[in-house]
Amino acid sequence: MKRIFKIVGVALAVACAASANATIPNLLQGTDGEQCRKWVDSVFNTMSETDRLKQLFMPVVDPTNIAVAKKTLYNHIVNNSVGGILFSGGKARQYTELIDYCQSVAKVPLLFTLDGEWGPAMRLKDVDGFPYNMGLGAIQDPELLYLYGQETARQCRLLGLQVNFAPVLDVNSDPANPVIGKRSFGEDPRRVAELGCAYSRGLESGGVMAVAKHFPGHGDTNVDSHKVLPTIYHDKCTLDSVDLLPFQRFIDEGYSGIMVGHLNVPVVDKTNTPSSLSKFVSTDLLKHEMGFEGLAFTDALTMGGASQKNSDNCLRAFKAGADVLLKPANTAASIQAMLAALRSGEITQSQIDESCRKILTYKYVLGLRKRPEKVDRPDLLEQLNSPEAEAVRRNLVEAMTTCIRNDNDLLPFKNLESNTIAVVNIGAPAANEFTRFCGKYADVSTFAAQQGLTQQQLMRIKKHSIVVAAVYSDNEGARHIMSQLSRCENLVTVFFINPYKMSDFAPIPGEAILLMGENTRLTREYAAQALFGGFEVRGKLPVNVKGVAPLGRGILLPKTRIGYSDPLSAGFKLPLADSIDKIIKTAMTAGAFPGCQILVARNGNVILDRQYGFTDRSRVVAVTDSTLYDLASVSKITGTLPGVMAAYDKGLFGLDKPASAYIPEMSTEGKDTITVRQLLLHQSRMPASISMYDLMMDPCTYTGRLLSRRKRVPNTVLVHRGVYGNADAKLRKDIISAHKSESAPYCVAGNVYVGQAAMDTIMQHVYDVPLRNKHGYLYSDLNFALLMDMEQNVTGEPHDKWVRDNVFGPLGCTRTGYRPLVRFKKRNIAPTENDRFLRKCTGHGIVHDEFAAFSGGVQGNAGLFSNSGDLAKLCQMWLNGGVYGGQRLLKKETVDLFTKTKSDISRRGLGFDKPDVDNPDKSPTAKSAPASVYGHLGFTGTAVWVDPDNDMFMIFLCNRVCPTRDNRAFSTTNPRPALMQAIYNCM
């Protein structure tokens, strides 16, 4: 809202031109005018007339050599009494150490400024950066720019800075502009204004002055004002409607600073005078016509565009209307030149006092009314590179991602089970965040090239049904490689370069084009997410790209799969990662497990995905996000249950029908009435398990007891704590072989193989085992063996194939399956226990559970191997009501039935375990877990819990049984419920 600028008693009132259209700057509107006036007067009245003039100067200092910088700063502050300092490059703690020093020796507190168009990282090497403005120009939600401005202000305040020379409000209407380009929000003046002002609102709400630049507009130039004076040839209509429009809105919305650039603007000043030195521009246009009443800064006065051969450009800039003289070539000489002009009457003391009072007023408003507190601190970098900054950075990168073409709705990718994907990195190594994150969604073949692809590479690439070209360079080699790929089927090009440079590739072949705008860790990650539907792509092109697409082009891509975000964006207030780290490191130090994976997701996004330690106690192979773990009984809900649910979804069985209707071997009296529902609820009266020791050992090879509670001959082999095996006992030879063969193809141990005979023997014992007399609940592995058996009978498919084709394949669970050694090397799999008795080796890639192992590695109770990332897809599909990747895998009614049903007599659900709300101390979950939670624990140390109330799940995988199941540290530290509780505590 525009108002006549009348703040009675505020020092600034004296300083401002009497424009009827002036808007009171926001930073002043909330100020106590009387207190401000008193402070300004108290400081102003102690200053000599010379010192008042010196307040206008703001030199630039190199902070990288602290000792040298302190000498330079002492001279500027003590001898020249300057009003502010701008540091050039350096590191964060160089800034804070020097700022503390400067404020300690200054009589009048100093304004410290930042030239940080994309945050402090633009100048500080050790601070993480934000995206360039050109990328941000694609964002459709200005609120994200406001939050970005707030975060930049937080970082500035941590560093002791009060002013940021941002935003850039130049409308980049010349693609060949050598100096603005990526620094601009784009070609649309209204979008530049909207985004720049939203950023300014955030910056100033955080207590940092926003300084818009480069007035009156540097966007339509083809020369660099750092070197020469550019000319803006626009007529007045164009200048008003394009170049000045963002600045006018900035002024109208009440922001406080404008930097005047070094530009020749003939339509305003016909004398060929740089705008920074032109009264027609800096006073008549900016202040009188446009109503600006804040601080007017010059651009750096050492730049070529401001050079003056026969006069001092600081003096000329001040006469033109500048309040702050930035980076004089020689501060002392310019001070003397201005004093001489004062003595000669060329300038007046009242002019100097006016600018000095304005500067002092803003010092008061920006918190310098008292001696600033020290800003140097040991944890400075941790505070700057904080979770808050990462959350803002991620939100910006997500929102600026832009799809320019999507023929045949190729994106996001569908039908992963039937497509093969090649990723060709053009101008970057094959291994980077982009390919790594693509690999989280699907198996991808990766390639890299700089100048060209060999014919052999090209032939291999063309065999894939989808080819992704990731472009990191616009050089001749990159263009050649793109021409080589032009005939590839379903070609998708992802550009990690400035949008203007895409025109070098025109016409761009292929079905889809994705623009990321720059090449950073996060743009590479989010590009992969965009291709696979990890978030909704909604950016729009901020510029016209000749031969490619017009300004404003942007194709909406839906979110179809799990994405990757951060805890703050998901509503976690406390540092989740710190809490998780503490619990896991405590457990590992105690010896609970050698390493682990933990994944937490909420609202459709993975918000914590961490790996710790090593795969075993040798500490040789580190755990990664691709390490496979033996899931043990978590296999029940991630392997068997999804297969059963898929069969139920197709109407292949009924829950309340007797299982004997699908398993003829259960037709014996007593078992013939057990229903499928009772198997799922563990209410079948089946015993907990059968002894594989008794079943697999040949009784003819030993005398006495097979197992004993006491160690005495012949029971001298420690099986596990308190149980000793007969040292003479040998495995059966009728169903077990020492060699791999057609009849015994499945490895159980190094030289132990089984086949159909062993499986049939085991299942026959399951069919024949006597039922318990007692009705009610008893958790039993045999229930799930029978469920898998039923599933195979009704589908006519082996269980591992059924779940691969109907569940894991469509989900993109490429690292999930039974018998992992068929596809993966041992190095990729975490080992389990050193079995001294039955298998006489360490389990590595072979299921730990004996029942499942001697069943050939595929059994209803155990046998599945996976990693946290793959299991996340399954959990998300359940939370989505059976939909994932744009495909419906299960009916919503089926998912609801299995995940919401609970037993009347136990905590169990239909196959799932649940919290024990009646006995929370005995619950397998956190005490804070709502009753709706479902999941399971696994003997090897695994856990999967899904919380539909909070749209969240946790996956924890470890191998606590390595090297032995006798691991008291795991039960003592009890990490699984502790980790889950930590998640709730942080929400």
The DSSP helix count reads 32
What ranges have pLDDT less than 50 throughout 5 or more consecutive residues? 1-20
* Rg on CA atoms, Å: 35 Å
Measured by DSSP, the beta-strand proportion falls in 5-15%
* Strand runs, count: 36
Describe the largest sheet. 7 strands, parallel
Write the layout of secondary structure elements.
Layout: H1 12-15, H2 26-29, H3 33-44, H4 49-54, E1 57-58, E2 60-61, H5 66-79, E3 84-87, H6 92-105, E4 111-114, H7 133-136, H8 142-159, E5 163-164, H9 189-205, E6 209-215, H10 236-252, E7 257-260, H11 279-289, E8 295-298, H12 313-320, E9 325-326, H13 331-344, H14 349-368, H15 380-384, H16 387-400, E10 402-406, E11 421-426, H17 433-441, E12 444-449, H18 455-462, E13 466-471, H19 476-484, E14 491-495, E15 512-515, H20 521-532, E16 563-564, H21 576-590, E17 595-602, E18 605-613, E19 629-630, H22 635-649, H23 676-681, H24 692-696, E20 697-698, E21 707-708, E22 715-720, E23 723-726, E24 730-731, E25 736-737, E26 746-749, E27 752-754, H25 756-768, H26 781-795, H27 799-811, E28 817-818, E29 834-835, E30 841-842, H28 850-853, E31 864-866, H29 868-879, E32 883-884, E33 887-888, H30 892-900, E34 934-938, E35 942-947, E36 952-958, H31 968-973, H32 975-985
Helix pairs in contact: 3-14, 5-6, 8-9, 8-16, 9-10, 17-20, 21-32, 22-26, 22-27
